[in-house]
Amino acid sequence: MPTPTTVQLLWGTQPRPKRGPKPALSLAGIVAEAIAIADAEGLTNLSMQRLAERLGFTKMSLYRYVPGKEQLTALMLDAAMGTPPDTTAVQQDSSEEGWRSGLRLWAETIFAQYMAHPWAIELTTGRRPFGPNELGWTESALVALADTGLTGSERLDTIVLLNGHAHSLAQQLHSLGGEQPALEFAEQFTEMMTEAGDRFPAVRAAFAEEAAAAQAPPPSGGPNDALNFGIDRVLDGLGVLIARRASAGGRS
């Protein structure tokens, strides 16, 4: 039987044997165990040998289901991204414009997926085959933008902008490594400002304001975090463009 391609594995179109014993493993089970290893220990500690040992089988037996790590990680990524949010449902229940609420939900949800699976961040770059879940995320965002008057290229670029913001922020937060490294950086930054704060007054003032805001009660509108700040700025810019298109259409 020919070796299945990445696309065939992602979309479940690989040839299946018509006869033979019942498979001892399932592709879904293999992928789920691989995700568990990557979530706990990172992608670098995942190997076909390690995965086989966790499953209680030989490495060669895994190759009957997935040809290698390249195909395995593609399957892991699509499974880890999960089902995209229903952007049409939130549009009906929101007090803001439908496209804004749909895209906000989309960006917040994809950010949560990146935070839950740090290893997925490095896999979502470059040209590669998309699985049904990942392509579903694109569909979900495009549906939210359906009645905005934006062109196809602009709608796709909007997805790139929002995903880029969520992707980059998740990557930065993961790189901080938790509470202890953050405390160490704060101590180092305080030392830097003590020594050279007069040379960088704008930097010192901005961080002083941030520190003061962190001590104050949160505003009634919700937490003013980096994720929502970036989402709002992207959506504000889109709102201007959408309004301009609507105005131009009304004059024609």
Q: Measured on Cα atoms, how large is the radius of gyration?
A: 23 Å
Helix-strand sequence: HHHHHHHHHHHHH
CATH superfamily of the largest domain: Tetracycline Repressor, domain 2
Number of strands: 0
Largest sheet descriptor: none
Strands, helices and their partners?
Elements lengths: L5 H6 L15 H15 L6 H8 L3 H4 L6 H13 L5 H7 L4 H19 L2 H5 L8 H13 L7 H25 L2 H18 L4 H15 L10 H26 L1
Helix pairs in contact: 2-5, 6-7, 7-9, 7-10, 7-13, 10-13
Question: Would you give an account of this structure?
Answer:
About 3% of the residues have low confidence. Helix content is 69%, strand content 0%. The N and C termini lie far apart (60 Å). The protein folds into two domains: 76 residues, Arc Repressor Mutant, subunit A; 125 residues, Tetracycline Repressor, domain 2 (Orthogonal Bundle), CATH 1.10.357. The protein is flat and about 70 Å long. It has 252 residues and is mainly α.
Key terms for this structure?
single chain, 252 residues, mainly alpha, Tetracycline Repressor, domain 2, 2 domains, 13 helices
Could you give a quick summary of the protein structure above?
With 252 residues, the chain is an all-alpha fold.
